[in-house]
Amino acid sequence: MNIAGIAWTRKRTATGAWRWYAYAWRGGPCIQKTISVKLPRLTPEAVLAFHRAISERGTMPADTISGLAAAWRASPEWKGFAAETRRMWGRTLDAITNKWGPVPVSIFDDRRIKHKIIAWRDSMAETPRKADYHVDVLRSLLSYGRLLGRLSLNMADGIPHLYKGGNRAAIVWEPDDVAAFLAVAEQPVADAFNLARLTGLRRADLVALPWDAIKTHAIVWRTQKSGRVRVVSFPLIAPATKLLAELRTRNRNAGVSTVLVNSRGRAWTPDGLNSSFNDARSKTECRKRIHDLRGTAVTEWCLAGMSDAEIAGAFGWSPARVAEIRRLYVDQARVVVSIGERLHREENRVKGTR
Fold it and tell me: From the CB of residue 221, how many other CB atoms can be counted at a distance below 10 Å?
């Protein structure tokens, strides 16, 4: 990952390669040195060094946005978030403090700040989902400010989302998409792809799913999300059971208890899986996301004979969302196949009468 505000410099080595230096801020301490052809990502150790340097810097007063963000990161509320949430929100919080850090918190109690927040959102309009996400995290930060009594208003409330992409639950990987992806994906990535399309597990759950959650006919797994215990439980359809039997044969390092492993026999990280997934997808014409495999799993469960209500209960969706996928991708496909079979039978009958 990279963090907004990091100062990067580079020097050419004797061999002609670039040596990259990452500084916590311009003039700040060096937190990483890397030899790389292109701008490298920060290592987990460098991210820790960055936050340690920021906390030791102590130049931002507590009544600034940076001070409020630091208090939020140290709070029980923040620590109660799932690790994946902290990772994703942390990146966006870094961007927020890079933009608003020195600004006094009290400024965000002035209604005139709203148009500045909207202008900031609009500056990211070319990536509307990113823009919406930044506003969402800012809204949560300001809510924490209200909790502490530092704010009486939340001026990020009521700002509408830019992204109008509709219901992605109705987007699925169709058979041609699946075949194209599996034709170019390496085995560990194909394993993750197939497990996602047969179970509907989210990316964070895919990489963390342990073998002890796999029961004879179901997955039953207690996880923690946003400080709350969440029970993941759903039946295994026959293709998923067959896949899991294959996954048990994969080479894995001692002590690795996750169902999925990468090419080095280790558990995937969310970023590692996402990067490898995107690399494979870039070799195809498909631009659907890994999250769209949830809708694909719904089609698999429909074909296995499960009802809309049963699927909706397992996914936490409404039956109407499931019904939409069934109508678009399952029933319609069955109708087309049925028509083809009928035409084939008719053609054979006509030939037989000649």
Answer: 19
